[in-house]
Amino acid sequence: MSAAGITTIDGHLLRKMVIAGANALMRDKRRIDALNVFPVPDGDTGTNMSLTVLSAAKEVEKQNSSSASAVAKAAASGSLRGARGNSGVILSQLFRGFAKGCEGLDEIAIADLIKALESSAATAYKAVMKPKEGTMLTVARHMAEFAATYPKNQKSAPSNIEGFGKAVLRAGDDILAKTPDMLPVLKQAGVVDAGGEGLLVFMRGALASLHEETQPVMSGNEQADEPADFAALTDLPHGEITFGYCTEFFIIAGDFNETKEDEFKAYLDTMGDSVVVVSDDAIVKVHVHTDHPGAVMERAMNYGQLDGVKIENMWQQNEAFVAAQAGATPALTPALSAAEEEKEVGFVAVCAGEGFKAIFQELGVDYIIEGGQTMNPSAQDIADAIGKVKAPVVIVLPNNKNIILAAQQAVHLCESKKVMVVDTESIPQGITAMINSYAATPEAAHELMQASLATVTTGQITHAVRDTQLDGVDIHEGDYICLLNGKIINACQSLHEAATGLIDAMIVNGDEVIGVFPGADAPNGATQHLMDYIYDNYPDCEADGREGGQPIYYFIFSAE
Q1: pLDDT by residue (tens digit) across 503-522?
Q2: Residues with Cβ within 8 Å of residue 189, at least 6 apart in sequence
Q3: What is the DSSP letter of 338?
Q4: How far apart are the first and last CA of the chain?
């Protein structure tokens, strides 16, 4: 049958479309990586999205069902387990919403697709605490809103899937072109949103498969085998904490449908903030900051059994940290070997660079996942690492703000262990967290580690891959770029000038402990020159230089 004659999508055709869309995203990932807000060589939006959708395609490939609902459900499950980075997690929620919109359908007609697109956008918005407009969320919502008007606002609107899909994609292209007007940082960089472009690339590939006579073969490129040129460094914003108890748990629910989800989330909104409710089939992950965790859990029991309950007193975290700082710093201990006995709590950390791997091993990390910028591990990768740790309780250090969401998703892929995530956004934060991991109980250790993050300042130096202006800083290709806690503060033609300027910006009180971690591309002797600079100009500071070996960044600095 020609594409013009296709008016419904069954399971076999949906399987074909998902695989074709995944292949298109894999082929185009480097171009999507190149839609960068920051002009630095650590991009991964296209890589993260392509690997996420590849995981969905793998699950779909196993399906030989004629039911569109079954195939959509498989894609949603695969994307959740393979979700990498913030963009991948959001994409997994778009898949999840689409599957909910197709539930129970053997074939999907245009009217069903309209409902599925609406469900897809709504589900993704719900998963993000404070959605930003000008992102892939906006693109997904606009396409769904356009689809809802089809064919009312279309003259002689085609009644086939291809005609409908092309019209929806045109609406997506239109809104993507407007994303720089919604996010000033995109306009400064002269780019459109990378996540939105990635979503459209997937959909174009899926739609094009209608013309293919044979089933497409998956590309199979599962590794981010080379660093991207540059990519959008977007993050999900975190709200201010105004309630005392961080409360997390799972609901083992048999039928947690959309109505129940809306009802429970509305209740949580009255009980606190930082509300996240994400479900995968019968398991529901709940997170809320509240003054009444008992009442929240009692309400949750109306939907099913509770598991993995974690309650943290955020008012006491700072007090606990101050008390810990008053004591002696614990000696470094080697990591457990595979032959050693199980201990009460274990640790998993994400990092890149042989030097950093050695540091985390010395600090007691049991399993290290190689990753970071350009190499974001999936939720399943993190879950697999957790499973290898010989401890009933495991604390995870993502060490990158773009990996935190995947780590949080990994929590409810590990039913046999209690898993806690420390929201480390950088390697220096991870090191400080591990130094503060000693405590009487795993819960207390997690509190100390989380509280310690506020004392760490992170500096990074990389190079620019294109000309731009960002936050008032004129940047030229080849410049050395200084980032302070992820924000570009300067660009220089000299690496030494960039490094010393960044050190100056990081030293506030004059008595900080400064860590200097050279990367794989740091020049010989540069580390000692920077150590001498610190001692000569800041005699009350303590400097510690140790090999990091990280890619992309010439130097990473920490200040405490």
Answers
A1: 999 999 888 899 999 998 99
A2: 36, 37, 38, 39, 468, 470
A3: T
A4: 66
